[in-house]
Each structure stands twice: as C-alpha cells, then as structure tokens.
Amino acid sequence: MSDNRSGMNRRGFLKAGGTALAATLVAQAAKAAPGGGFAGQSLQVWSCGGLAEAFMPANAMYEQQSGGSISYTGAFAGALGKSLLGGNAQTEVFAPRVLDLAKKLKAQGKMLSFQPLCYTRYVLVTPMGNPANITSIQDLKRSDVKTLCSPDSSPPGGQAAMGVLKKSGVLEQAKAQSIYLGSCVQHDVADVASGKAHAAVVELRVTRLPRYKDAFEIIDIPEEFFPAPPIPFTIGVMKWAKDQEYARNFVEFITSDAGQAHFEAAGFVPARSEEGERLTHKYGVVDA
Question: Is the CB of residue 189 less than 8 Å from the CB of residue 126?
C-alpha cells in the first residue's frame, strides 16, 4: 500500500513536475519569440523622425503581442544623435539615419550593438496625369517644366534632394525653374500635388503619407544619383536599456517579417528582403 501510495505520489509528482516543466518551456518560448512575455514593462525607443509612420503601427503591434509598452520619440536624427553623443540624453533603443552615427555611438560604448533596419530611396513626383509628360529626371532641364525645390528643408530632405539633382546634372536648371525655393519638403510638395509645379524630387516615403495618398505619379530615379549617407537606417540597443532582453526582443520584432512589413508600407526598403540585403552589402551596414 505504501509502495502503491509511493507510486501514486511519484506519478503525481512526475505529472506535476511535467506540467510545471511544460509551463516553463511555454513561458520561455513565448519570451524568446519576438514580442512575447514582457507584460507590464516599458521601453524607451527613439528614431529618426522619418521613420515615425513605420514605427507607430509596428510599436502598437509589438505592445499587443508583448503586453509591454513603448515610449516612442521620432525626431530629427541629427539632434537626437548629438544629444546622445555629447549630451546627457539617454534612451534604450535608437534607430538613427546615417550609418556613421550608429558607428560613433558604438565606438563610445553607448550603443551596444546595431543592425540594418531599412533603406530610403528618392523618386521624382508629378501631379496625377503627369501634365508635363515627364519621363526621367533629365526632363527637368526642359524650359517648359516648372519644378519645385526645397533646398532649405531640414536634412536630409533639402540637401539630399539637391544632391540627387546635382549628380543628375540638372541642379542649376531645376533651381532656376523652381516656382519658389522652399524650406519644408512635406509642406512644399503639396504644390506639386495641386499642379502648381510639374515635378519635385522627394523620398518615396513622402508619397506614402496619408495626406499624399494617390496624389502623385511616381518616376524612378537611377540609384547612381543617390547620395550615400542618408540612405541606410540602423537600429541598436543602448547601454541604458534597463532590461536588455526586452530591448533585444523589441529589436528582433522590428527586424522580423512582421515588423519590417510596416517599413515597406511606409515607403522604405526593408533590410530583411532580397533588395535590402543587396543594399546592406553595398553600403557596408555591418556592426563590426
């Protein structure tokens, strides 16, 4: 009886132990999966402001899956980077534009690691119907084409677009024929949508903003005319991350297929794609 009872107890113990082990494995698996098992925790995430339209829905999806919360700031990456490099600012995850910024933060020991996130590209936009019949950026040399340039827009919108025009050999004509020289790409390009100007160079992401949905016809610009520095975006875990497992899990989610889909929808080339892998190799986006 004693043996039977002992046997029953042992079976019960094994059953209970097995149940506990299974629960532990499920919990570990959930925590190991991107977006699992961080209920009640909070994570501070900063990024270049141009990524905000991608990060906001991605963050919402991650919060739903993880049970945690994301405190997100999207702003001018140069200013955020300066405050992190030389100031007292802190964040737990940072997604900057320009590879050199990530490398400098890593060299200072403030960014623990980084990986490629996505890539931007520049396009030529015309009003719907393309009234000036523009087929390539070389058409901006035509005297009948009214352009729109915004050289004083905050980087990289102004300087980079001017760089594209310069490398294309059409900068002087484009500036001379601009209906005005603007200072905010996202605001100024409304005058292309309305037909006041025939064409402008913008990042593809601008055409995905809700206010410009179906507002333009889009013409590709050869990649050889793109300035290299503003093209790559990276994402990295910072030394101030209170729970590095949580921070790394968030980064893992953002660079997963589910997370990357939001960046593609917002007009970026996801790093986790065949084209993204080509650009990662081209621009040398490696955490060495």
Answer: no
Tens-digit pLDDT profile for residues 214-240: 999 999 999 999 988 889 999 999 999
- All domains of the chain in start order, with CATH: 42-120+231-283 (3.40.190.10), 122-225 (3.40.190.10)
Q: Which residue has the tokens 């080339």?
A: 269
Q: How far apart are CA 205 and CA 49, in angstroms?
A: 12
Q: Give the separation between CA 245 and CA 262, rounded to whole angstroms.
A: 23
81 vs 76: CA distance, rounded Å: 9
Position 242 pLDDT exceeds 70: yes
How would you write 212-269 as a 3-class SS string?
HCCCEEEEECCHHHCCCCCCEEEEEEECCCCCHHHHHHHHHHHCCHHHHHHHHHCCCE
Tokens encoding 242: 């209170």
How many Cα atoms within 13 Å fall on the side-chain side of residue 149? 23
The dihedral through the CA atoms of 181, 127, 57, 286 has a sign that is negative
Residue type, 215: A
Rounded to two decimals, the pTM is 0.85
